[in-house]
Design goal:
The structure is a single chain. This protein has about 1100 residues and is mostly beta strands. Helices cover about 5% and strands about 45% of the residues. It has a domain at about 875-1055.
Length: about 1100
C-alpha cells in the first residue's frame, strides 16, 4: 500500500568507496581474436561497487589502488580478472562459446561449474537484492526467480512467506530453509495466534529478515529436492543460500559508506472510495419521522439535549455504518462532538455533513533511513571485512517505528600452506513499536475504516480530540439516552487513542556466526571442519489501556531460540585418465544439529489496578497461568556426494544422506534419502554457430522430514489455579509414539540454451514432486479423551514448469538493454487425507468461510456458501419483501468458491544503460488465484462505498427503494418467482434479465446479511510495477585526487503504483498481498 518517490516515490542513496592509495587506472579493452576495441565492457573492482564502462573506442578510466583486482566482463566474452600493477592496464577478452566459466554456489556452500549441475539453480546478485531498500530483504526477491512465490504482508516490518514450487506440507512448514555462509538460520514467524487466519493480532515478521541486504554478495535459490538433499529433512521446501561480502586483496583499506532515505504514503487509488451523500446508521430504526420540524424518517435519535422539553435530532453514534439520513448542511444536529465536556463543541449542534477528512487523513507519510559503513582489506595471507548498518523506519500509522542495527565481521587467514581458518559473525538488534494491528481486530484501524464506519466523521477532529485530552474520545460512543455510559466506546476507539495507547513493543537480539578451518591434505584432498550458531532472544509486549473498548490488560512473551551445527567434510577433487578426460568431485561428511526453544507467555486477568502501569503484578485478578514451551531437537546426519565428469560435457552426480532424529520414535528415527542427477552439455558435441551453450539435465531425489517437537508423548496443559488448587487439562491433539518420517519424491528435467554469443538464452524446467506419509492431526473418537491424534497420512502433489528468459536486445555504443523474464506455472493437488476424511480445515475466517485441503482439489481452496444458478450458470434472484421491492440472491449450499493458488506468476526485469546512467524496471505479475474479502463482505452492508450512494441508470438514487425506481442494478441474472419448481423440487421457470436490488439499509442484497459468501471472493490477478530504479555513476576521472573511487546516486521506488485488477464493480480496492493459510 505504499507509493514512493516524486510522482510515485522518492529515495536517494549514495555510495562512496574510499582508499588512501587510489590512483587513476586507464587502458583499453579489445577482442582477443580480432584486436577490435570493445565498447560497453564492465570494469569493476572486485568486492566493491567501484566500476566503470568502456566507451565506444574501448577505453576506460577507473580509480583503484595498487594490488586491487579489476574484473572485466561483457556479454559473450569470458570474464577476466587482473591485478592492478600500474596506471595503465590493457586487456584482451576472448569470446566465450559457452557458459563453461560460470560458477554457482550449491548445497553446503560448495562452488561448482554451473555446466556440471544437474538441477535447477538460480542466482540473484547482491546489487539486485539491495537495489531498493526494504526492511525485509526477501521482498526484493519478488519477481526475480522462477518458481519462487513470495507473499508479503502489508504491515511495517511484516513477514514474507517464501514458497518454492508450491505447498508441500498439509499442516507443517512450507517455508524454504535459509543458509547464510554455511549457517542454517531460523526463519520462524512469531506472529500472534490469530494473525494468519485474519482474526487479529500482530505480524512480528520472520526471523530471516534480520539479514542485512548491504552485506549480501549473492543469493542462490536451490529449488528441487535434488538440489537440497544434502541439507537433510529441513530442505524439502527448497533452500535460499546467502553468500555475504568478504574482504578483498588490496593495498591499504577500503572504506564504503552508503546512505539512503525513502518516503512512502498510502496509495489513495487502492483505498476505499467513500460515499459522501448519506450519514450514520443502519436504516430507519432510531426515531420518529420528524424531529424539530425536520423530516428525519427514522434515521435520527430523538432526545432532549438542551432540556427545553423538545426532542432534538441526534445522530445514532452507537452505529458504525452509513445507511443514514441524506446529508444537509442546513440541518443542525447533535453528534459525537456534542457529548464530551472536554471539548469546546460540548452541547453544541453542528451541520449534518460528510467528514471533511476521511480515514486517509489518519495515515502519515512513512520515512526510512538507511546508513551503512564497511571497512575491508586483504593480502596474500588473508582478508577481512567489518560493517555496521543502521536501518530505521517510521510507519504510515501514527506512533509506529522499527529500528535495526546490524554489525558483521568476516575474516580469513592463511595460517600455513595447508591450513586456512575463517570466521563470520553477525550481531543484530531490532526494536519495534506500534506495529499495525491486522485482521478483524479493533486494534486494526482498517477494520473500521474499510468495513464499519460513519462517513460523517472528520478524522482531523478525532486527532484534535485525542491530542487535546489524551483520552479515548471516540466517534462511536453509546450516545444520548445512555446516562453515565453516554461517552463510553461501544465498538471502536478513537483511532489515535487506539494506536498510541493500545500499542505494542518488541525487541530481538541475535547472534549468527561460525568458525571454519580447512586443511589441504594434498593437491586433491582436503578436510573442512565448521562450527556454527544462530541464537536469539525476543520480547513482545502488548498493551490495552484503561478506557478502551477491550478489557485493559498487558501481555508479555519471552522467547529464546538456539541452533548449533557442527559439520565435518572430506572433499576430493581429481582429474584423471590418459588425457585427463575424467573429473571426480566427492564429499563425505557429517552434521550434528541441536535446536532448543524456550518460550513463556503471561497476561493480566480482569483489567489493570493502576491505569498506565503495564506489569503482570498490576493485574486486577490473579494473572492467567503462563503458557510455557521448552523443547530440544537433535539430528545427527551422515552424507556423501560424488560427481563424475567426462570430457567437460557429461556429468553424473549421486548423493545420499542418513539422518537420525530425536523427534521420531527409536524404531523409526533413522531415514535415508538419495538423489541422482545427470547433466549433458550437448553444445560441446555439436558445432552450430548460433548455439553458444546447450545443456540437458535430469534428476531424481527423495527427501524426508521428521515430526514436530514433542509429538511422541502427551503433556498436560496447566491452567489458572482455582484458589490454591492447580488445574490441568489434556491437550486437544494427542501424540503418537509410532510416527514415521514424512517423504517427498521428486523428478525434474531441464534444458538450458544460449544463442548468438550468449545474447539470448533460456532455462526451462519441468518437475513433479509428491509428498506423502505426512504427519497430521486426524479426528478420533471422543471417548479417547481428545479430539485429534497425530498420524501418518495424506499425500499432496505439485507439478509445474519454470521458464527463465534472458536477452540483450541492444548493445550498441554507449547504450545497452538487458531483459530477463521469469515465468512459473505450478499445479497443486491434494491426493488424499487420513482415512474417512473429506476435508482438512487449514483456517477459519469470518462468515463461516474456511480455507481447506480437500482430496482432488488444490491445497488452499476457499469453501463457503454459493449462489444457486440456472443451467447456464447465471445467479438466481428472487423478490425481497413487498414493501421494499427489488430482488436478492438465492443462496445455496457450501462448496468450493475459490483457490488461493495462482494459475501462474511471473517477473519481468529490464535494465537500460546509457553511458553512466542505468535505469531498471521490474514488473511483478500474477494471473489467477482468489481471496475472500471481509472489506466487501461487511463494507457492502455498511454503506461506506461510493457505488452504494450514487444514481442508477434510471437516474434515481440507488438508496431509494427499488419499488420506487431506485436500487442497484444487477445484470444478467435468472429471476425466480419463489414458487415454481421442477420434479425434484428445485427452483425453475426462470426469467433471464436485469433486475434491481435494494441498497437502502444493512440488509441489502450485496452485503453479508443476505448474500452468498461466493460474492465476496475476488480475482487475485495483478500486474504490479514492483521496482523502478535510476542510477548515476560519477566517472572516476571527475573525482580527481579526492581519494574517492566512485560516487553513485540512486533514485528508486518500490510498489510504486497500484496493481490493476478488474473487479466486479470495477473498483480497485485492494493493494495488500495475501499470504494464504
Amino acid at each position: 500500500m505504499k507509493r514512493r518517490a516524486n510522482l510515485f516515490a522518492l529515495a536517494v542513496a549514495t555510495f562512496l568507496s574510499l582508499s588512501a592509495y587510489a590512483q587513476n587506472v586507464t587502458g583499453s579493452v579489445t577482442d582477443a581474436a580480432t584486436g577490435e576495441p570493445l565498447p560497453s565492457v564492465s570494469v569493476k573492482e572486485k568486492g566493491t561497487s567501484n566500476a566503470a564502462i568502456t566507451n565506444f573506442d574501448g577505453n576506460y578510466t577507473i580509480k583503484a589502488g595498487k594490488g586491487a583486482v579489476l574484473v572485466f566482463s561483457s556479454m559473450g566474452y569470458a570474464s577476466q580478472e587482473v591485478s592492478v600493477t600500474g596506471n595503465t592496464m590493457n586487456v584482451a577478452l576472448a569470446i566465450s562459446s559457452s557458459k563453461l566459466d560460470e560458477v554457482v554456489v550449491t548445497a553446503l556452500g560448495i562452488s561448482r561449474d554451473k555446466k556440471s549441475v544437474g538441477y535447477a539453480i538460480q542466482e540473484v546478485g547482491g546489487a539486485e537484492v539491495n537495489k531498493v531498500k526494504d526492511a525485509n530483504f526477501m521482498s526484493s526477491l519478488s519477481g526475480k526467480v522462477a518458481g519462487v512465490n513470495i507473499r508479503q504482508s502489508g504491515t511495517m516490518g511484516g513477514s514474507a512467506n517464501v514458497v518454492i514450487r508450491g505447498y508441500k506440507s498439509l499442516t507443517g512448514n512450507n517455508q524454504a530453509l535459509f543458509v547464510v555462509d554455511g549457517i542454517p538460520i531460523s526463519n520462524q514467524i512469531t506472529n500472534t495466534g490469530n494473525q494468519q487466519t485474519g482474526r487479529g493480532g500482530y505480524d512480528y515478521g520472520n526471523a530471516a529478515m534480520d539479514i542485512n541486504p548491504e552485506d549480501i554478495d549473492k543469493v542462490s535459490v536451490l529449488k528441487g529436492a535434488a538440489a537440497t538433499a544434502l541439507y537433510g529433512a529441513r530442505a524439502a521446501n527448497g533452500v535460499i543460500l546467502i553468500t555475504t561480502k568478504k574482504g578483498t586483496k588490496r593495498n591499504g583499506l577500503g572504506v564504503s559508506v552508503t546512505s539512503g532515505y525513502t518516503v512512502g504514503s498510502v496509495n489513495p487509488d487502492t483505498y476505499v472510495r467513500y460515499q459522501n451523500r448519506y450519514g450514520e446508521g443502519y436504516g430507519q430504526y432510531y426515531g420518529p419521522d420528524t424531529i424539530a420540524g425536520y423530516p428525519t424518517n427514522g434515521y435520527m435519535v430523538a432526545y432532549d439535549v438542551d432540556g427545553d422539553g423538545i426532542d432534538d435530532p441526534c445522530t445514532p453514534t452507537t452505529e458504525d455504518a452509513s445507511f443514514g439520513l441524506a446529508f444537509d448542511p442546513n440541518f443542525m444536529v447533535y453528534t459525537w462532538e456534542s457529548l464530551y465536556p472536554e471539548l469546546s463543541t460540548y452541547g453544541q449542534k453542528s451541520a449534518h455533513v460528510a467528514g471533511a477528512n476521511n480515514p486517509l487523513y489518519f495515515f502519515e507519510q512513512s520515512a526510512n533511513i538507511n546508513n551503512s559503513v564497511a571497512i575491508d582489506g586483504g593480502n596474500d595471507n588473508g582478508s577481512f571485512r567489518l560493517s555496521a548498518t543502521q536501518f530505521s523506519t517510521n510507519g504510515i500509522v501514527p506512533g509506529s517505528s522499527l529500528k535495526r542495527n546490524n554489525f558483521s565481521f568476516t575474516g580469513s587467514l592463511k595460517a600455513s600452506d595447508k591450513l586456512t581458518v575463517s570466521t563470520t559473525a553477525q550481531f543484530i538488534q531490532q526494536a519495534g513499536r506500534g506495529r499495525y494491528g491486522t485482521g478483524y481486530d479493533s486494534r486494526n484501524p482498517n477494520q473500521s475504516f474499510r468495513q464499519w464506519f460513519n462517513v460523517g466523521v472528520d478524522m482531523a477532529k478525532q486527532k484534535e480530540a485525542y491530542e487535546l485530552t489524551g483520552k479515548n474520545i471516540t466517534w462511536n460512543p453509546f450516545g444520548y439516552g445512555y446516562g453515565d455510559d453516554a461517552t463510553k466506546p461501544i465498538y471502536f476507539d478513537n483511532p489515535y487513542f487506539s494506536v498510541l495507547e493500545n500499542y505494542q513493543t518488541d525487541q530481538r537480539n541475535r547472534l549468527i556466526g561460525n568458525m571454519m578451518a580447512t586443511y589441504k591434505i594434498n593437491d586433491w584432498l582436503d578436510f573442512m571442519g565448521r562450527a556454527s550458531i544462530d541464537t536469539y532472544s525476543e520480547l513482545q509486549e502488548e498493551r490495552a489501556a484503561v478506557g478502551s473498548v477491550e478489557i485493559p490488560g498487558y501481555i508479555r512473551r519471552n522467547r529464546n531460540v538456539t541452533e548449533t551445527n557442527i559439520d565435518m567434510i572430506l572433499s576430493a577433487n581429481k582429474v584423471f585418465g590418459s588425457n585427463d578426460e575424467f573429473s571426480f568431485n566427492g564429499r563425505l561428511g557429517s552434521n550434528i544439529r541441536r535446536n532448543s526453544v524456550e518460550a513463556i507467555s503471561a497476561s493480566t486477568n480482569g483489567g489493570l489496578v493502576v491505569p498506565g502501569v503495564y506489569a503482570l503484578s498490576n493485574s486486577v485478578n490473579t494473572p492467567n497461568a503462563p503458557g510455557e514451551t521448552a523443547y530440544q531437537i537433535g539430528v545427527n546426519g551422515l552424507f556423501a556426494a560424488a560427481s563424475l565428469g567426462y570430457k567437460n560435457f557429461l556429468y553424473v552426480d549421486l548423493t545420499g544422506r542418513q539422518d537420525v532424529s530425536s523427534t521420531l520414535p527409536a524404531a523409526n528415527n533413522t531415514f535415508f534419502y538419495p538423489s541422482a542427477t545427470m547433466s549433458l552439455v550437448f553444445s560441446e558435441l555439436i558445432d552450430v554457430d548460433a548455439i553458444s551453450f546447450g545443456k540437458v539435465r535430469l534428476n531424481y531425489a527423495e527427501v524426508g522430514a521428521d515430526a514436530p517437537a514433542q509429538a511422541l508423548a502427551d503433556a498436560y496443559n496447566m491452567g489458572t489455579a482455582f484458589g490454591s488448587t492447580s488445574l490441568a487439562s489434556a491437550p486437544s491433539t494427542s501424540n503418537n509414539a509410532g510416527l514415521l518420517p514424512e517423504s517427498t519424491v521428486s523428478t525434474e528435467a531441464g534444458l538450458e540454451m544460449m544463442f548468438f554469443n550468449n545474447r539470448v538464452g533460456f532455462d526451462v524446467s519441468v518437475y513433479d514432486q509428491t509428498s506423502f506419509n505426512q504427519i497430521m492431526p486426524a479426528k478420533v473418537s471422543s471417548t479417547s479423551g481428545t479430539i485429534y491424534k497425530y498420524v501418518n497420512a495424506g499425500e499432496i502433489n505439485n507439478k509445474g514448469i519454470e521458464l527463465s528468459l534472458s536477452a540483450t536486445p541492444i548493445q550498441a555504443g554507449d547504450f545497452e538493454w538487458n531483459t530477463n523474464l521469469n515465468w512459473t506455472k505450478n499445479t497443486n493437488m491434494v491426493v488424499s487425507l487420513f482415512e474417512g476424511a473429506e476435508n482438512l480445515q487449514l483456517a477459519s475466517v469470518q462468515g463461516g468461510v474456511t480455507i481447506e485441503a480437500r482430496p482432488g482439489q488444490a491445497y488452499g481452496v476457499i469453501y463457503g456458501t454459493t449462489h444457486v444458478r440456472d443451467a447456464d450458470g447465471r445467479p438466481v434472484v428472487y423478490d425481497m419483501p413487498a414493501q421494499y421491492g427489488g430482488v436478492r440472491y438465492l443462496v445455496g449450499d457450501k462448496d468450493v468458491i475459490g483457490n488461493i493458488n495462482p494459475d501462474w506468476y511471473a517477473g519481468w526485469n529490464n535494465s537500460f544503460r546509457f553511458k553512466n546512467w542505468t535505469a531498471s524496471v521490474l514488473l511483478d505479475m500474477q494471473m489467477g488465484g482468489n481471496f475472500f474479502s471481509l472489506d466487501t463482505y461487511y463494507g457492502y452492508a455498511t454503506g461506506i462505498y461510493d457505488f452504494s450512494a450514487g444514481d442508477n441508470d434510471l437516474g434515481n438514487p440507488v438508496r431509494d427503494l427499488a419499488i420506487d425506481g431506485g436500487g442497484y442494478k444487477i445484470n444478467n441474472v435468472a429471476y425466480w418467482d419463489g414458487s415454481t419448481v421442477d420434479g425434484d423440487g428445485n427452483p425453475s421457470g426462470f426469467v433471464v434479465g436485469d433486475y434491481y436490488a435494494d441498497m437502502h439499509y444493512y440488509g441489502n442484497a450485496l452485503g453479508y446479511a443476505r448474500n452468498a459468501r461466493e460474492y465476496h471472493v475476488w480475482d487475485a490477478s495483478f500486474i504490479k510495477l514492483r521496482e523502478v530504479a535510476l542510477n548515476y555513476s560519477v566517472p572516476s576521472s571527475y573525482l580527481g585526487s579526492t581519494g574517492i573511487r566512485s560516487d553513485e546516486k540512486d533514485f528508486y521506488c518500490s510498489s510504486c503504483c497500484p496493481r490493476y485488477r478488474l473487479l466486479y464493480f470495477g473498483l480497485e480496492l485492494f493493494e495488500c498481498e495475501f499470504k494464504g493459510a
